[in-house]
Design a protein that fits this description.
Blueprint: E1 5-7, E2 14-18, H1 25-35, E3 68-69, E4 75-76, H2 78-81, E5 99-103, E6 111-115, E7 120-123, H3 144-149, H4 155-158, E8 173-174, H5 178-182, E9 208-213, E10 220-225, E11 235-240, E12 250-251, E13 260-262, E14 267-270, E15 276-278, E16 284-285, E17 291-292, H6 299-307, E18 317-318, H7 322-326, E19 329-330, E20 340-341, E21 360-364
Parallel strand pairs: 2-21
Antiparallel strand pairs: 1-11, 2-18, 3-4, 5-6, 6-7, 7-12, 8-12, 9-10, 10-11, 13-14, 14-15, 16-17, 19-20
Length: 366
């Protein structure tokens, strides 16, 4: 298992973000319509009612965090003592929403969970587990080579079940990307998943596989560990492809590629999410963020700086939550951070050579 990983509980760079604006409907509807007839979306072979779109595959869920704590670990009133903390913003940018586990109307041994925001359908249990509560059998670890080749226990194998009609009548099951799997992380629950909907009983000992390659480490993929094991807690980590880990399969259109627009005023708009970000790391400014320098900030300093930020008049800025920050990470870029922010739009000079305790502040637009 690769030695580097992302601590979800920390923000290593400090960007400020302006709370989510109403997303431009034509853009995300276009994203959906472009994929309506794709192979990924043509996988429902059953006579069962299928959920109707449009969906927003690029949207971001709220983290599920509803409480705030001080440095001593005491619960505080968010708005009073910790304004701008994640727990101070419920259902931002979008409320969490899942349906299931749902028994298939024809293949009654098959159970799925539907995500109506992104339009994704998840297999209710990890591979190897069965039943409405996943109590049948045990999770079966698999390595990347076997999962990618469609061997026994893979997501591809699900497409051949039920005499070729596929698990739950779907023939487009696949390994989720790291962004898709991260969307079902719930930062309050133990383990860190929507346990009211995802009944899988196995979250310790091994992480869950994603199809996202670690561009910095040949032979590694990104994986997500949902377990609660301090001091690590939930984490995204780089895992050797030869290592057998757990697998949870997904069906539906993949999340779209990132789509950013430089507003020309020191901000970047994300067309997928509607969020407006500060282009430079906190402490930097000017064209290409060449002036100033990135300063080390603790969480309270970063939160305070974003809360008081005046970048674009009339806009309220705040520190992003972890889901928002992860949405601008470019997992395909090996240089030099693990992984890096999309440096085509978000410029930081100098770029760090490792993941330090540096906060990169972002401002989000609501």
């Amino acid at each position: 298992m690769y030695k580097y990983f992302i601590f979800i509980a920390l923000l290593f760079f400090s960007f400020c973000i302006k709370s989510p604006a109403v997303l431009d409907p034509p853009y995300f509807i276009l994203q959906y319509l472009q994929n309506v007839n794709s192979t990924e979306n043509q996988g429902n072979n059953s006579q069962c009612p299928a959920p109707a779109g449009p969906f927003n595959p690029g949207a971001i869920f709220d983290t599920g965090q509803t409480l705030c704590w001080n440095g001593a670990g005491t619960v505080q009133t968010c708005a009073l003592w910790l304004p701008g903390a994640d727990g101070d913003f419920n259902n931002v940018p979008n409320a969490r929403s899942f349906v299931g586990p749902t028994q298939h109307c024809k293949f009654t041994s098959d159970y799925t969970i539907f995500d109506p925001l992104h339009g994704l359908t998840w297999k209710a249990c990890a591979q190897g587990q069965t039943g409405s509560d996943c109590s049948g059998s045990v999770a079966a670890p698999i390595n990347w080579a076997n999962a990618n080749a469609g061997l026994s226990g893979s997501c591809t194998e699900l497409n051949t079940l039920n005499s070729g009609e596929g698990y739950a009548g779907r023939t487009n099951w696949r390994i989720p990307t790291v962004r898709e799997l991260a969307s079902i992380v719930h930062y309050t629950n133990n383990p860190h998943i929507e346990n009211a909907f995802f009944p899988s009983r196995t979250f310790t000992g091994r992480p869950y596989m994603t199809s996202t390659i670690d561009a910095r480490a040949a032979g590694n993929n990104w994986a997500i560990d949902f377990s609660v094991a301090p001091p690590m807690d939930v984490r995204i980590l780089s895992t050797a492809q030869a290592t057998s880990i757990y697998l949870r399969c997904v069906s539906g259109n993949a999340m779209p590629a990132t789509s950013f627009v430089d507003q020309g005023d020191g901000t970047i708009r994300d067309l997928n999410t509607g969020l407006l970000w500060a282009q430079c790391s906190e402490g930097q400014g000017g064209v290409g963020c060449m002036f100033g320098g990135i300063g080390s900030l603790d969480w309270n300093q970063a939160r305070g700086n974003c809360n008081g930020k005046v970048l674009v008049p009339g806009r309220v800025w705040r520190l992003p939550n972890i889901n928002e920050l992860l949405s601008i990470i470019d997992y395909s870029d090996p240089n030099p951070i693990l992984p890096t922010i999309d440096t085509t739009f978000f410029q930081t000079h100098p770029i760090l050579q490792d993941i330090g305790p540096l906060l990169h502040m972002i401002a989000i637009k609501v």
